[in-house]
Amino acid sequence: MRIVKQCKCCGKQFVATRMSTLYCSRTCNRKIVHEKERERELSAKNALLEQKEPNPGFNTSDSLKLLKASDLSVMLGVSRATVYRLFEKGTLKAVQIGHGTYVRQKDFDALFEANVSYKKRSYRRKCDTGNETYSVREITEKYHICKKAVLRRCELYNITKHYEGRNLFFNRKAVDQYFAELIEEIDLDNYYTVQQLMEKLQMSKQNVLSFVYKNKIPRITRGRSVYYSKVHIDSYKRLGDDVDPNWYTYAELIEKYGLTKDRTSYFIRQEQLRTEKRGKFTMIYRSDFDKKVLNGRFKNAEQDEQGNVVFIGSTPPTPKEEPRNTPESPEGYYSAEELSEKYKATRKRVLELGREQKLPAIEIKDWKYFEKEAADNFFGNRKCADGIKEWMTPEEVQKEYGMTPDARRSFVHRHKIPTKTEFGKLFYSKDHIDKVKGLCFDDRDKYYSVGEAMSAYNMSKDRVFYYTKQYKVSKIHQGQYVFILKEEFDALMKKIAEKYELPMK
Questions:
Q1: Ramachandran class of 347: left when φ > 0, alpha when ψ lies in -120 to 50, beta otherwise
Q2: % the chain with pLDDT above 90
Q3: Is 298 in a helix, a strand, or coil?
Q4: How high is the mean pLDDT of the chain?
Q5: Residue 228 and residue 212 in contact, taking contact as beta carbons nearer than 8 Å
Q6: Nearest C-alpha neighbor of 233 from the set 250, 252, 214
Q7: What pTM value is reported for the model?
Q8: CB 130 within 8 A of CB 173
Q9: For the chain, which residues make up each domain, given as ranges?
Q10: Candidates 1.10.3470, 1.10.10, 3.90.105, 1.20.140; correct CATH number of 188-237?
Q11: Is the pLDDT assigned to residue 210 strictly greater than 70?
């Protein structure tokens, strides 16, 4: 049954949920409650004034009744702050006695008895300056930008402004001059929108905005749409399909000449080749680099008919350093090469650690040798735990155990997993990880993991759990992993194969 009622406040008809409902909304209900509270407060104050006994020596006429600011706020239905503003303006005559401010009843009555006609406030222009100025609203409507953007742009270009009352106006000529670009048509082929950048860069909107802000990508605004320069974006991200034929990138040089990035930078500095910075990329002038190569950098380099450098042979030479013929080390000392081979670290890393730890060393004809005892003490302490047979790379750990890079680093640090470094490559102990994960325990060879059972009998995970539960195969839990007794599971699979005449693997 629908209960249709009429609101006691606004008079609108509405469908009530209860018979006792009187108002169509919470707003109307709140409005009536406030009115009743005002009436209750006013009646209580009037009753209090009537109950007061008059002083025999004091004239108690209505003209000498005193009203407080709180009384006036209730009577006028305004805040006390508004009442005090009336006092300050002189609209109401008030006097401060002690900690209270009072107004005579007759002064309050005179406020309404004065024959002053009501005049509506007007916010229109007081003078005819329409041909010389723009209001803020006119600028926003003409150039399709928000008020905040108008004020910011006018402040940037120091455009003349003046006030008429509360209204703000700007010089028309200056606005047309500095805002004209906002209504000019743009070639959208030279710009990316935010949505296009999100799709092209495979970034979220927040990452795109952070990228363009960080790299100071030029942009233009049309209304609420923002466009970013395609040239600058492509120079940073190398998204452009056209390759500048007059310039090399580092990647192109490394691929063509077999150089490392460090050797390329060294060669450019030594030969003082012409370079150009494009975004975060350094471009090397192609003809200068090829000319230096032809002048003896590489013996098997020649120039073809088109002017490109080619190599005689299948592949370009790789300018790696030839193996150093290290002299025999003095007694009681290691060479850097010997330490590199013994502790599986690069020669460069050995020299760096030697300098950092200030290991005792000597130099003989530009060859550096480290004292054996000090080197063994330092590098021996960095050596990983002995007896560990199986090691895993970080990528293998993440794939095997379903970890993210952050989770892997946190796990290794928290459980103090032994590590080793060989020639700059990091490895983790698989045995220790399995032990922490519950995958390594006594009699481990007598049990199948779920994955091992799936592989052994070519069945799904659900099928393994079904057989284990249905036929009550013995199992144990290690952490989050389940292990099934091999003997019972193999016997079960043999029995099922014989029953249904299935081939056994």
A1: alpha
A2: 1
A3: coil
A4: 78
A5: yes
A6: 214
A7: 0.29
A8: no
A9: 3-31, 61-112, 133-183, 188-237, 247-311, 333-383, 405-499
A10: 3.90.105
A11: yes
Per-residue pLDDT at 57: 43
**Cβ burial, residue 305 (10 Å; 0-12/13-18/19+):** exposed
Question: Identity (one letter) of the amino acid at 474?
Answer: S
Residue 257 · residue 248 · CB < 8 Å: no
Give the gyration radius of the chain's Cα atoms: 44
Per DSSP, helices labelled H in 302-447 are 336-343, 347-357, 372-381, 394-401, 405-415, 430-437
Helices 80-89 and 69-76 pack at an angle, to 10 degrees, of 110
Give the pLDDT mean for 96-104.
86
Distance of CA 480 to the CA centre of its chain: 34
CA pair distance 444, 447, nearest whole angstrom: 6
Backbone angles phi, psi at 487, to 5 degrees: -60, -50
CA distances from 30 to 7, 27, 80, 360 (A): 13, 5, 21, 86
Q: What is the pLDDT of residue 317?
A: 47
At 283, list the tokens. 């471009």
Closest C-alpha to 379, from 414, 341, 416, 409? 341
Q: What is the pLDDT of residues 412-431, one digit of tens each?
A: 888 888 887 776 678 888 87
Architecture of domain 61-112: Orthogonal Bundle (1.10)
Phi, psi of 124 (to 5 degrees): -80, 170
* Contact of 467 with 457, CB cutoff 8 Å: no
Residues in CB range of 167: below 8 A, 6 or more apart? 123, 125, 135
With a cut of 60, say whether residue 56 has pLDDT above it. no
pLDDT at position 170 is: 92
CB atoms within 10 A of CB 212: 21
Residue 442 CB coordination number (10 Å)? 6
* 334 torsion bin: left (phi>0), alpha (psi -120 to 50), beta (else): beta
Q: Please, which pLDDT band fits residue 468 given cuts at 50, 70 and 90?
A: confident
pLDDT on residue 119? 63
Tens digit of pLDDT for each residue in 244-275? 667 788 878 777 777 777 878 888 888 888 88
Report the distance separating Cα 199 and Cα 150, nearest Å: 31
Range with the poorest average pLDDT among 155-164, 213-222, 229-238? 229-238
- The DSSP output letter for 63 is G
What would the two tokens of residue 340 be? Answer: 């590199």
Pick from 392, 457, 455, 403: nearest CA to 428: 392
